[in-house]
Amino acid sequence: MKVIEKVNQMREELEKELASATSSKEVSEIRVKYLGKKGLVTELTANMKELSPEEKREVGSLSNQAKEEFSKKMEEEEKRWKEKELYQKLTSEKIDVTLPAFEMVQGSPHILEKLTEELEELLMSMGYDVVEGPEVEKDLYNFELLNLPKGHPARDAQDTFYTKGEELLLRSQTSPVQIRTMLQNEEKTPIRMICPGKTYRRDDDDATHSHQFTQMEGLLIDKNISLADLKGTFDIIAKKLFGSARQTRFRPSFYPFTEPSVELDISCFNCDGKGCPICKGTGWITVGGAGMVHYKVLENGGYDPKEWTGFAFGFGMERLAMLKYNVTDVRTFYTNDLRVVKPFDRKEVE
Fold this sequence. Notes:
Layout: H1 3-20, H2 24-35, H3 40-43, H4 53-92, H5 111-125, E1 129-130, E2 136-138, H6 139-142, E3 161-164, E4 168-170, H7 175-184, E5 191-200, E6 212-222, H8 227-242, E7 248-255, E8 258-267, E9 284-293, H9 295-300, E10 309-316, H10 317-325, H11 338-341
Parallel strand pairs: 1-5
Antiparallel strand pairs: 2-4, 3-4, 5-6, 6-10, 7-8, 8-9, 9-10
Helix pairs in contact: 1-4, 2-4, 5-10
């Protein structure tokens, strides 16, 4: 049989086989049968050595034409079948999006963490550094260098947890970080720092007290610093936390490490200063304590009080959070009830 007759016969058989194919897999098998290494088209050139040059040209030409023609037909047929199979698969495996989905529990920041980060960002924008220190502290840093020597009556008010005699204790305030920062600053350059962290005192656990609580204290040391600088800083903090309508005031107080010392008050956000149960009828709410750094503390930190001045301030983060978010029980911050943090899984409107 001549080569051209073989090609015509293969063409007819190929048409029949493709017409009877029922899947892309069968089309692929037909491709191997005709165009594979041992396929029918390849067999056309099996005896090329025995042919004359003219016959070789004829057989080679017909073989190439058949290979190109058959390959094109099978590609088209294979594509058609794959599209059909994909459509069938999408139709049979479609998802009913109207079915109820599983609820995905989304986390949110802890209230105290959220408020602490908010204050940190504000004060860092004002040039303050965030500094940390040990929670197990020496009496030297927690009391003595802060102008609370042994026997000072103010020590009794702090009800401290001692861990080793009277030398080691769980810090009752974050102020030790301030004196450590002053001592570590060997060049005695200006300081702007805040120190957020846990503190511990022997308080009974009730709605307003906890043996563990969070503080954030700040310290600024420079030249020609006055109470006016402290007042300006407090104004910014109060308005950031409680709204631009808040007014602030200083009220005389006493702290061993500052002189003069003041209570930090804001106008009541509930009654706007008119008087209500929240502010106990005064129109003002105390949110923290502050004052000018005592000259003895400056000396203990290696700063000459004749050349340097500064102010320090401190907030109880639980108290700020209770006021800001209307929390009535401080123990709420230390429970595992996710309903407490659920309202804070979204950005606040400023």
